[in-house]
Specification:
About 85% of the residues lie in helices and about 0% in strands. It has about 130 residues and is an all-alpha fold. The chain has one domain. The relative contact order is 0.09. The mean pLDDT is about 85.
Length: about 130
């Protein structure tokens, strides 16, 4: 493989790595937002459940609160914030196919592809200047 082909392949790999990073950050931010809304809702709901349990459930005051906790566990599993679960039944089932569609649509937009190339060139230039100064 000649030097020019190797550099082109390396640049393509770096470009794909950057796109993957951007996608991963976007997905993480989306999951953080969903998780945050869930927490925002669970705070008052859990307090209300505890109060109602104490007032109306007699010998089982924790019953309502435990239902809220169970719901919280299920949503935590579904959100899969850090992607630890590689199983069915998580938000990743919705997000993964979306990545392919988004990338496919993005590649159809010539201006977006052109802009991406220019941004990658600028980043590569910054990286190579930084390396040459060391």
């Amino acid at each position: 493989m000649d030097k020019e082909t190797r550099i082109t392949n390396e640049n393509s790999n770096v470009s794909q790595s950057r796109m993957q990073l951007l996608w991963d950050v976007l997905v993480f931010q989306l999951k953080l937002t969903i998780d945050g809304f869930r927490d925002l809702i669970l705070v008052p709901v859990s307090l209300i459940a505890a109060i109602l349990g104490v007032l109306f459930r007699g010998h089982q005051p924790a019953q309502y609160f435990q239902r809220v906790v169970k719901f919280g566990r299920k949503t935590e599993y579904w959100i899969n914030l850090f992607g630890q679960r590689k199983v069915e039944g998580t938000a990743d089932e919705i997000i993964s196919p979306l990545q392919e569609k988004v990338m496919h649509q993005a590649l159809k937009r010539r201006w977006l592809v052109r802009t991406g190339r220019e941004v990658n060139k600028a980043i590569d230039a910054l990286n190579s200047n930084g390396r040459s100064r060391r």
